[in-house]
Amino acid sequence: ALASEPGIKAIIDEGAFHGLDLASELELLPSFRDKALYVAITHPQVFQVAGTINHAHSLSRRYWRHRGNMPPREPDVSQAARDAFRDAISAYFRQNEGRGHRCTVDAYLRVNRYHYFFAYPDNYADTYLGHDEDGQFVRRPQRPAFEVVFLFDPIDGTLDVYAHGGKV
Fold first, then answer.
1. What are phi and psi of 139, to 5 degrees?
2. At what angle do helices 5-17 and 32-42 cross, to 10 degrees?
3. Alpha-carbon span 37 to 129, nearest angstrom
4. DSSP letter string over 88-106?
5. What is the CA 56 to chain-centroid distance, rounded?
């Protein structure tokens, strides 16, 4: 997914945040695929975060909601604040939809301005039907996660939220 023009832009931006001049490092590589593979090998953390951010930018615009008039201040991204946010998201989905019993929240700062929060609450339980490594048929209960993305811009005071579902 990063072997594209937007993907390489995400890599270069993330590298700059970490004090790396990846534009210069990647300049002589002949293809997007070569550039992405080079970063995956030499700067795996940059590659991982750039992939996450690039993924957010490729999500369907249909499910994004925009809100202005947010307080123009830096959010609290401490572990305690992220834990409280995680618990609030989990509680919301448990109470309103009967899912979200567990949740993980990852936070990323992008180009020293944009705060991304990726929440992964549990979806409804299901059973995996398939074969294990020994070829034996198995039924395994599982709770896959679904994704909710929050993008906060403290300078403009805007919040964009991505949640796949019906129109609100």
1. -120, 115
2. 30
3. 34
4. HHHHHHHHHHS--SSEEEE
5. 6
**Residue 126: strand pairing partners:** 142
Measure the CA–CA gap between 41 and 29, rounded to whole angstroms: 14
Burial 79-107 (b: 16+ CB within 10 A, else e): eeebeebbeebbeebbeeeebbeebebeb
Residues 6 or more apart whose Cβ sits within 8 Å of residue 23: 12, 15
Spatial CB neighbours of 98, under 8 Å, sequence gap ≥ 6? 124
Q: What is the pLDDT of residue 168?
A: 45
Give the separation between CA 32 and CA 26, rounded to whole angstroms: 9
pLDDT at position 164 is 85
Beta carbons within 8 Å of 34's beta carbon, 6+ residues apart: none
